[in-house]
Write a structure and sequence with these properties.
Helix content: 25-40%
Strand order of the largest sheet: 3-2-1-4-6-5-12
Radius of gyration: 21 Å
Number of domains: 2
Structural class: alpha/beta
CATH superfamily of the largest domain: ATPase, nucleotide binding domain
Distance between the termini: 45 Å
Number of helices: 12
CATH architecture of the largest domain: 2-Layer Sandwich
Number of strands: 12
């Protein structure tokens, strides 16, 4: 890229938010803000939530002496309606913004990012783009069939970071990313493991279908879920808490902080070690299972996300999966991926997907005329 594009990147989350000023995919200035989880949980209405996050975005611009009008584009980690997207860029159109506003999906940071990006884009006339959104769904039909007739499994993954580290890993090894195969595990507050083949994500284990994580239950037996409803003593809020709040490492150990868990293990806590190693064990099972999708022909296994910094956890995973392929540990690249994707669009190297074409994929649709 010869031209230097000025891009404001907005990536808001439930525990922390990142805001950056980039030139192409180079981060010139960035801030990461940690949030008080109790304060955020006490914000109930959407307007107050957006206001909470917006002051952080505007505060960053003010502190760095930047103006929206100096930006060529905004790169937003957001979402429109929950449906099946293609990888790559989508212009944040009024319709996309309205779909997000009327039917919020995903975590609240995705919603706030979209609303703030939409507002700033309209106010200042600067285009805003989404890139590699969470519900990117390009898997073959065989990967979306389950045991429930006529139900197509919903596909969601850490598309943004996983496609970025795949491109980087290919570059580092002198490969063409569009002719490479990687199994990638994103290890953060939520985990996701997927198969990246020739530029496309072709199968996934999400936070609902994969292993348990620091703050997610992962796959749980159907019999356990039905027993909660059949028992009669649990309210809807009780069931929500049991399945989504007091779960994962937090449910077992009272903390989702992996540093704290490792400290307990070092001090001889046998329960902490067993649960933590079980999490690594389940990640390894997901990786190995996805190896079958590509008949074991894998160029490398990539561990990424904040918890991939844990030598203890990744060591256990390596022991179990190195028979498949070399294991590479790579830092997250979400901010660079957002900025770089939008820069390629501005430079004319990537096309923009049409949001009007986003819709639910229908199981067996391709066989209708067969």
């Amino acid at each position: 890229m010869d031209k230097k594009w000025n891009i404001l990147v907005i990536n808001l989350g439930s525990t922390s938010s990142k805001i950056a000023y980039c030139q192409n995919d180079e981060i010139i200035d960035q801030v990461e803000l940690l949030h008080d989880s109790i304060e955020l949980k006490n914000i109930k209405d959407p307007e107050s939530l957006v206001a909470f996050y917006k002051k952080n975005v505007l505060g960053f611009l003010d502190e760095k002496g930047l103006a929206i009008t100096e930006m060529d584009a905004l790169a937003v980690r957001g979402i429109g309606k929950w449906s099946s997207y293609r990888h790559g860029a989508y212009l944040l159109t009024p319709q996309l913004g309205e779909d997000c506003r009327s039917s919020p999906v995903g975590h609240r940071g995705l919603y706030a990012s979209t609303m703030i990006g939409d507002d700033l884009s309209r106010t200042y006339g600067v285009p805003a783009y989404l890139y590699d959104v969470v519900p990117t769904d390009e898997v073959p039909d065989i990967a979306s069939i389950c045991g429930i007739a006529n139900y197509r499994m919903r596909i969601a993954s850490h598309t943004l970071n996983c496609r970025a580290v795949a491109r980087k890993a290919a570059e580092n090894s002198g490969r063409d990313s569009n002719k490479s195969t990687f199994i990638i595990s994103h290890l953060g507050g939520g985990f996701g493991t997927l198969v990246y083949k020739d530029g496309i994500i072709i199968d996934t284990y999400s936070a609902e279908t994969g292993c348990f994580t620091p703050e997610r239950a992962g796959r749980v037996p159907v019999s356990f879920v039905t027993s909660l409803f059949a028992d009669g003593k649990y309210s809807g809020q009780d069931i929500e808490r049991i399945l989504k709040k007091d779960v994962g490492l937090f449910g077992h150990l009272g903390t989702s902080d992996c540093l704290e868990v490792e400290k307990r293990i070092t001090n001889g806590d046998k329960k902490a070690k067993l649960v933590y190693e079980a999490m690594a064990y389940q990640v390894s099972k997901d990786i190995s299972a996805l190896g079958a999708v590509v008949c074991g022909k894998v160029d490398a296994i990539i561990l990424t996300g904040g918890i991939s910094k844990s030598a203890m956890l990744t060591g256990w995973i390596k022991e179990r999966v190195s028979y498949i392929a070399q294991v590479i540990i790579m830092p997250s690249m979400e901010m660079e991926a957002l900025a770089g994707g939008v820069a390629r669009v501005l430079n004319g190297d990537e096309h923009v997907n049409n949001y009007e074409e986003v819709g639910e994929r229908i199981l067996f649709e391709s066989l209708a005329d067969a």
